[in-house]
Amino acid sequence: MRERAEALAAVIPRERLDPAVLAWAARSSRARWGLAFSGGADSLALVLLVWALWPGRRRRLVVLHFNHRLRGRAARADATFCRQVCARLGLQCVTGAWAGHRPGASEAEAREARLGFLRKHARFLWFGHQRDDVAETMLMRLARGSGAGGLAAPRPVQSAGGGRVHLRPLLRLRHAELTTALRAAGIAWREDASNATGLYLRNRVRRDILPRWERVAGRDAVAGAARSRELLEEDDTALEGWLDRVRPLDARGRLDLARLHGAPRALWRRALHRWVLVNPPAAVLSRAAFDTLLQQVESGTRMRQSAGRAWFAVSDGRRLSLEAAPRARGDRPRRGRAN
Known about the structure:
- The protein folds into 2 domains: 2-223, HUPs (Rossmann fold); 250-324, no CATH class.
- The protein has 12 helices and 10 strands.
- The protein has helices at 2-11, 19-26, 41-53, 73-89, 107-121, 131-143, 148-151, 175-184, 201-217, 221-246, 265-278, 287-299; strands at 33-36, 61-67, 92-97, 124-126, 157-159, 165-167, 255-256, 303-306, 311-315, 319-324.
- β2 (61-67), α4 (73-89) and β3 (92-97) form a beta-alpha-beta unit.
- α1 packs across α3 (41-53), α6 (131-143) packs across α9 and α10 packs across α11.
- The termini are far apart.
- The model is unreliable at 328-339 (pLDDT under 50).
């Protein structure tokens, strides 16, 4: 396996990986890196390339395999395969399983459970997402009306809060390039049969939409989507930096509307999103309610809008704040003698 990993790295050298990830790795601390490894082609290529291209890091790598409990007996074989690969490379391997799994669990729930497991074991997490994943994610998010921040995913270097970083070095490579390189090096991987089914939305996009999209476009539409993702990330970063300089939130979590006077709506929208994040009860706002609130605060009028069962978004035309709703008369505690 070690010789084959070196052979793979000869075909996919560092310069073919994402430059933002390479720059991050060059200035990385001595903290360990966690490599997410399902056993599939993309994540196997990730593990082998990191092992081969960063030999000085091998003792500070931990390979992380999570069983979603969606594949029955095949999942046990996946875990065995991952442990065998790590043993041959001399890498630490940690496996886990989804204790809270239930029949009919959604793709999002499975993803969150896996992410929770990964974050327990490393602050710096490496993922095997590749260029096809970029196009699939963009199509999925377009369907639900995402803005620049959502359409710029998955990012090569993503701050995940609390000093955590997610890294995706393979975003400039297509899945077919990775499988071709693995085959040429004589490396086998685990194939998830569910990927060919329509069980989840991503699978349907991959199987039914992406090939047709490329045929209709008559060009490498996936490369075009990857280029758009990079441009959207640039725009999103610029707008976030602009908002950082405006500093619209005060120490009490109120939105200072005067600081946004004359700013484009994109900045107002982002400022309001930040206000929601620092005022968690407001997270219940529907998209329509959020847009209504955005229109009201941008107009500078005095307003009071429901923000959940027990909260109101309140503005005096200068600041937006979150206030608890007055308790109904019937809900007030009664005074009297104890029985």
